[in-house]
Design a protein that fits this description.
This protein has 114 residues and is α+β, with helices and mostly antiparallel strands. It contains 2 helices and 4 strands, in the order αβββαβ. Strands 3-1-2-4 form a 4-stranded mixed beta sheet. β1 and β2 (74-76) form a beta hairpin.
Length: 114
C-alpha cells in the first residue's frame, strides 16, 4: 500500500513540476518590459482661406411653442428643465391656449404642494 502511495505522490509531483515549467516558458517572454510606443502628433490645421465674418443679425424665433403631454395634461415652457427631453404630443402658441385646453403648467417636485 505504501508503494502505491509513493508512486502516486511522485506522479503528482512530476505533473506539477512539468506544469510549472510549461507555464514559465509561455510567460517568460511577456515579463520583459517593452519600450513605450511612440505617440504620433496630429498635423497642424492648414490655413487655406481667410475666415469671413458676417455682421448680419441672426433671425431669432420669438418664442418656442409650448409642448403638452396629453397623458399627464401638463404643458412645458422653454424655461422647463424637461422641455428638451420631452417630445410633446401637443403644441400650443400661448399659455392661455394651453390652460383653455385643460392643461396645467409644469412644476418641479420641490414646488408641488401636498
Amino acid at each position: 500500500m505504501l508503494w502505491l502511495f509513493s508512486q502516486m505522490f511522485v506522479l503528482c509531483a512530476v505533473a506539477f513540476a512539468l506544469g510549472s515549467v510549461l507555464t514559465w516558458l509561455t510567460v517568460r517572454g511577456r515579463l520583459r518590459a517593452e519600450p513605450p510606443k511612440q505617440v504620433l502628433a496630429l498635423p497642424a490645421p492648414r490655413l487655406t482661406a481667410e475666415k469671413v465674418v458676417v455682421d448680419q443679425p441672426v433671425a431669432r424665433q420669438k418664442s418656442l411653442p409650448l409642448k403638452g403631454n396629453s397623458k399627464t395634461m401638463v404643458y412645458h415652457t422653454a424655461d422647463s428643465p424637461y422641455y428638451r427631453r420631452m417630445k410633446g404630443d401637443r403644441t400650443f402658441a400661448s399659455e392661455a391656449e394651453a390652460v383653455a385646453a385643460g392643461y396645467r403648467m409644469w412644476t418641479t417636485k420641490g414646488r408641488v404642494k401636498a
